[in-house]
Design goal:
It is built from ten helices and 13 strands. It has a domain of 110 residues: Phosphatidylinositol (PI) phosphodiesterase (TIM Barrel, Alpha-Beta Barrel), CATH 3.20.20. By secondary structure, the protein is an alpha/beta fold. Strand 2 and strand 3 form a beta hairpin. The longest helix has 12 residues. This is Glycerophosphodiester phosphodiesterase. InterPro entries: GP_PDE_dom, PLC-like_Pdiesterase_TIM-brl.
Length: 253
């Protein structure tokens, strides 16, 4: 079972308001998390940032679009009044023994991320995804399929709508290694038992985001999902511990 600290565990009471900061990720690692989830954007001068939003406005004391802001300007913005926006390089250097689930949030980040992974030979430290199929396909081409990727939206739909796992695998050409999906979308259960079985039959894992309720976690684990993203890193750890699915060796990494 893969436990992903979503943006470092954005709603853990001890770090709320510090999402996607080195402090948040350090908190998750200290809890024992080995898999960290983050997003990437690039600044106007090409710096790869670990940040969710396209703008600084929501979580920092500055405003403006990352795409039109220089790295030096971004560094003056503080998250929660105290933490800088980190680069992806800072996270890799700060936590050398963890793996990263990286969501590409903007097309300009694609070549920068591909180059970053290649320069660091970090092929086995990342799982990369994007809602945007064009961005993910471009990333796959640039990395020659060497980096594990999750399914983009059209590939997810193949597993949801086509009549068999074999056909879905054929249509997606075996490229994704995981479906990363919500539990529900409006009134539709996306991460259903049927979808989990189908993904597993095709050799894919199923990771569900973003789950903070213990009852929902239990239901999804009973359904056989392979990973959960959570903002409440404390709750997910407690649930996994109670089920004997938390590796105590995670702690202290």
């Amino acid at each position: 079972m893969l436990a992903f600290a979503h943006r470092g565990g954005a709603y853990h009471p001890e770090i709320e308001g510090l999402e996607n900061t080195v402090a948040a990720f350090r908190h998750a690692v200290d809890l024992g998390y080995r898999y960290l989830e983050t997003d990437v954007h690039v600044t106007s001068d090409g710096e790869l940032l670990a940040f969710h939003d396209a703008v600084l406005d929501r979580v920092t004391d500055h405003t403006g679009s990352l795409a039109t802001t220089t790295y030096a300007e971004v560094q003056r913005a503080l998250i929660g009044g105290r933490e800088r926006v980190p680069t992806l390089a800072e996270l890799f250097d700060s936590f050398p023994h963890v793996r990263f689930n990286i969501d590409i949030k903007a097309a300009p980040a694609v070549p920068v991320l591909a180059r970053f992974i290649q320069e660091r030979e970090a092929w086995d430290r990342v799982l990369v995804g994007s809602f945007d199929g064009h961005s993910l396909e471009a990333f796959r081409r640039l990395t020659d399929g060497r980096v594990a990727t999750s399914a983009h939206l059209l590939e997810v739909l193949a597993f949801l709508l086509l009549p068999s796992a074999r056909l879905a695998r054929l249509v997606t050409r075996g490229r994704p290694v995981a479906l990363q999906i919500p539990h529900r979308h409006r009134r539709v259960t996306v991460a259903s038992r049927r979808v989990v079985r189908r993904a597993h039959a095709a050799g894919l894992q199923v990771h569900v985001w973003t789950v903070d309720d213990p009852g929902e976690m239990e239901a999804l684990l009973d359904r056989g999902v392979d990973g959960l993203f959570t903002d409440r890193t404390d709750i997910l750890r407690d649930v996994l511990r109670s089920r004997g699915q938390w590796e105590e060796s995670h702690e202290g990494l």
